[in-house]
Amino acid sequence: MEPVIQEEPTGCGIAASAALAGVSYAEAKQKANALGIYAADTTLWSETEHVRTLLREFGITVSPKETPFKAWESLPDKALLAIKWHTEQGKPFWHWVVFIREHGEAKVLDSKKALKFNTRRDFGRMKPKWYIEVSN
After folding, report:
1. CA gap 85, 130 in Å, rounded
2. Which of 28, 65, 111, 113 has the fewest CB atoms within 10 Å, i.e. is most exposed?
3. Residue 21 falls within a domain, yes or no?
């Protein structure tokens, strides 16, 4: 699985969905927009339903709940993570990334355009708040 770079400053949920679906950002954005999901909508990174809807459209099954993050070792082999979690005026916001464990190697696919490397292994720097397990 490869990272997909977000083409909009607020498109991390679309990019994470694209990475999980194995499609380009443009393809995921087109599908999201057809569903009424837009990167500029703050609920894309302050609620989980838009990303869940987009993933369902791609045929990807995710857990119905968010599980509090405890340790990298306890994560399932595939998950959506909420990092950079914070509140603004009492409302939670976060950055969506994908955690994957393939062939015994753990990595995070981070869609942020400004990163030098979008495949991350600097686990000590990331502070996930919770995750959503991805089943397929």
Report:
1. 9
2. 65
3. yes
Find residue 102's DSSP bridge partners: 105
pTM above 0.85, yes or no: yes
Joined together, the tokens standing for residue 128 give 């996930």
Here the tokens at position 101 are 């464990």
7's CB contacts (< 8 A; 6+ apart) are 15, 25, 26, 29, 113
pLDDT in tens, 31-74: 999 999 999 888 877 899 999 999 999 999 999 999 999 999 99
Domain carrying residue 76 = 12-133
Q: Has residue 2 been placed in a domain?
A: no
The total number of structural domains that make up the chain: 1
- The answer, yes or no, to whether residue 136 has pLDDT greater than 80, is no
Query: Residue 7: inside a domain, yes or no?
Result: no
Residue 78 near residue 100, CB atoms below 8 Å: yes
Q: From CA 60, how far away is CA 132, in angstroms rounded?
A: 12
Query: Within 10 A of 100 (CB to CB), how many other CB atoms are there?
Result: 20
User: Does residue 1 belong to any structural domain of this protein?
Assistant: no
Measure the CA–CA gap between 18 and 115, rounded to whole angstroms: 18
